[in-house]
Amino acid sequence: MNLLINDIITAVATPIGEGAISVIRVSGENSFRTVDSIFKGKTKISFAASHTIHYGKIIDEKGVVIDDVLVSVFRGPNSYTGEDSVEISTHGNSIITKRILELLLSKNVRSAEPGEFTKRAFLNGKIDLSQAEAVLDLIKSRTDSALRGARNQLDGLLSQKVHVLRQSLLNASSLIELELDFSEEGYEFMPKGEIIEKIDKVLKEIEYLLDSYRFGKVLRDGINLAIIGEPNVGKSSLLNYILKEARAIVSDIPGTTRDIIREEISIDGVLFKIFDTAGIRKSEDIIEIEGVKRSLEAVKNADVILWLTDVNNNYSETIKNELNKFTNPKKIIKVVNKIDLGQNNDIEADVYISSKSG
Ligand SMILES: Nc1nc2c(ncn2[C@@H]2O[C@H](COP(=O)(O)OP(=O)(O)O)[C@@H](O)[C@H]2O)c(=O)[nH]1
Ligand SMILES: [Mg+2]
User: Fold this and answer.
1) Residue 225 Cα, ligand 1 centroid: separation in angstroms?
2) Whether 2 contacts 81, CB under 8 Å
3) I need a labelling partner for 197 at 20 to 30 A (CA). Which of 6, 119, 182, 311 fits?
4) What does the pLDDT read at residue 2?
5) What is the mean pLDDT of residues 246-259?
6) Residue list, ligand 1 pocket, CB within 6 Å
7) Which residue has the higher pLDDT, 10 or 215?
8) Are strands 270-276 and 351-352 parallel, antiparallel or unpaired?
9) Nearest by Cα to 189 from 164, 165, 171
10) 72, containing H or E segment
């Protein structure tokens, strides 16, 4: 079917471990015959109609039954890869899948590389590149919104948009070519202003699409959020408040948090990876010094920083200087904590909170 690819590939398609079932995928020319050589059932897979399921046993070279299975048959091009392929459903046990895999590998079959079934789907024209990319995003989605984004991309929404843009550009370029061919005769097919307008419109849409990429990336990968500030301003209390659990140790002893505490939470469908850090201050204690080093590392990797102080303090120069060292733009939100103790009008901030009273 495709000149580039015709060997048979296989892989376990389900997670390794115990489960009700595991699925082994096999795809490629002659894959039906190969499966027939290890499968014993009422029907031969080679003669089975597409999209049918067949009960039988997988038997090894010595005639020993490895497992009873269901084999699903997909005849190309009406399959995921576009090739003849089967899915062998076994009992969910990794020894069984390993033995069946070994059996297949002893035939004319090789292990699929990661993503190779999807690669074949792409090479056989079943999906385009942006859809192939979406398959992995879909599998890796950890929030509703990430899932929705991947779903839309898999449904071809991005491809359609790119297609429309491409069509508009082709259209504009052919108008320009016509213009060039007939310019001496004095024909004008479309006023130049209108062509420029058309192209400008496409440019704007491309910019919009690029912007949406950033947003999409956030939906997919989540937001790295670091809570930083001096010791004792209530960073760990804030983390605990957000998580609604006593995750980090809170105490009135400055320097309680020495290591980074990392937690994930989905808020309105967006994944936040929150880093509670050691308070940043000059210290002689080698453990605290290491903690501060790690805090700054968390700042470096953060998309958003919650810079905390409390009503008894103000934003320290030490931290301001540290933040100024980072060149890549970060969203810094200045937070004043402990407002239950009273207001302090000297501190300017974006948000005033109390982790204690909520
Ligand atoms: N009154 C009051 N105390 C707080 C608040 N948030 C934290 N604290 C107290 O401040 C101290 C230090 O809190 P902690 O979360 O360990 O600060 P961290 O060192 O910045 O992580 C603890 O005794 C907390 O109970 C708040 O909003 N109001
Ligand atoms: Mg702490």
Assistant:
1) 19
2) no
3) 182
4) 45
5) 88
6) 229, 231-237, 250-252, 256-257, 279, 337-338, 340-341, 354-356
7) 10
8) unpaired
9) 171
10) strand 65-74
- Give the containing element (helix H, strand E) for 54: strand 52-59
pLDDT at residue 17, as a whole number:
86
Instruction: Determine the atom of ligand 1 nearest the C-alpha atom of 233.
Output: 20
Q: Length of the chain, please?
A: 358
Give the Cα separation of 14 and 68 in Å (integer).
Answer: 17
Give the rounded percent of residues in the chain with a pLDDT score beyond 90: 62
Q: What is residue 62's three-state secondary structure?
A: coil
pLDDT band at residue 344 under the 50/70/90 scheme: confident
pLDDT of 1 reads 45
Token representation of residue 203: 């440019």
| Helices 129-140 & 144-154 angle (0-180, nearest 10) | 160
Residue 346 binned pLDDT confidence (cut-offs 50, 70, 90): confident
91 phi/psi in degrees, rounded to 5: -65, 150
Outline where DSSP puts E strands in 298-341. 304-310, 331-337
Distance (Å) from CA 258 to ligand 2 centroid: 8
For residue 81, give the amino acid letter: T
Q: Whose CA is nearest to atom 6 of ligand 1?
A: 234
Q: Is the dihedral of CA 295, 296, 302, 306 positive or negative?
A: positive
Q: 25-29, 66-70, 113-117, 330-334 — which is least confidently predicted? A: 330-334
Query: Residues 203-214: pLDDT tens digits?
Result: 999 999 888 887
pLDDT for the residue 146 = 87
CA 338 to ligand 1 center in whole angstroms: 7
Task: Please say whether the dihedral angle defined by the alpha carbons of residues 116, 118, 119 and 124, taken in this order, is positive or negative.
Answer: positive
The preferred substitution site among 228, 232, 238, 353 for testing ligand 1, maximizing ligand atoms within 8 Å of CB, is 232
The closest-lying atom of ligand 1 relative to the alpha carbon of residue 230 is 20
Ligand 2 centre to CA of 79 (Å) is 54
0.90 exceeded by pTM:
no
Rg, C-alpha atoms of the chain: 30
